[in-house]
Model the fold of this input.
Amino acid sequence: MSVVFSTRKSVEQVEEGRELAPKFDAEGLIPCVTTAAAGGDVLMLGYMNAEALKKTIETGEAHYWSRSRQVLWHKGASSGLVQKVVELRIDDDQDAVWLRVEIPGDASCHVGYRSCFYRSVPLGHGSHELQFEEQHKAFDPKKVYGDAPNPTKL
Amino acid sequence: MSVVFSTRKSVEQVEEGRELAPKFDAEGLIPCVTTAAAGGDVLMLGYMNAEALKKTIETGEAHYWSRSRQVLWHKGASSGLVQKVVELRIDDDQDAVWLRVEIPGDASCHVGYRSCFYRSVPLGHGSHELQFEEQHKAFDPKKVYGDAPNPTKL
Done:
């Protein structure tokens, strides 16, 4: 059975119903929070278009839309760090997705860390210099990605 | 010390540095994943403008930008469900924020559930009818919000 999205007809249908009726933004994207099934840390925040969401549901492997490369992105196709989806959830108004995934090598971030969120911001009125919460990279991005362009945009 | 954001000068500065240099999108917003400090469940995906991010850092209470109401939103100001920030993290390219929060009453979602992500989507090629992962609402939204308009947009 292929994935078919329902038309959004009412707030009650979207919030309290059992129909999958996702809302994509003006660029055709829906944000996706991806957490580690083991431990629960947030690994990354990505974006999916309709095709990426359908492929994720059908295959059980995380697919995103790469905004920097403007292509469907089967995460791990080049790095080997495929994300196996344990659970996929959708939020109240169906404009955000949450994936719980297993990751090989316990690494996910293109910079080499386990999570993309490897730095914290101190709260309050003192210094707000970023603190590294991961002390070591989980892998060497040069070895994994070679000369592929860095996706970070200024 | 007030929060001051640095100018984004290089990929290395943004990814490997200690300067807070967040990237806001064309609408001046940055997405924010909010998880429960206890247990780690994703509670909501919100958005912050520069003021909301600064107020969150300075006060230790979660502030967002309400896209439906177009106002700075001190979460819990009307419901009492204030989110106390335990940790604030920023991602590799500094275009996403992760808050770990404590929530009073163990409830967060305007529909009445603990998490906004109270439904899952079955994977694979069978039925994709949504499954409720929370069986009971944590509070009665009518009692908490009264006649305030529902923020969900079709």
User: Anything to note?
Assistant: The mean pLDDT of chain B is 93. Strands of chain B lie at 30-36, 42-48, 63-66, 71-74, 84-90, 97-102, 119-120, 131-132. Chain B touches chain A through 63 residues (CB under 8 Å).
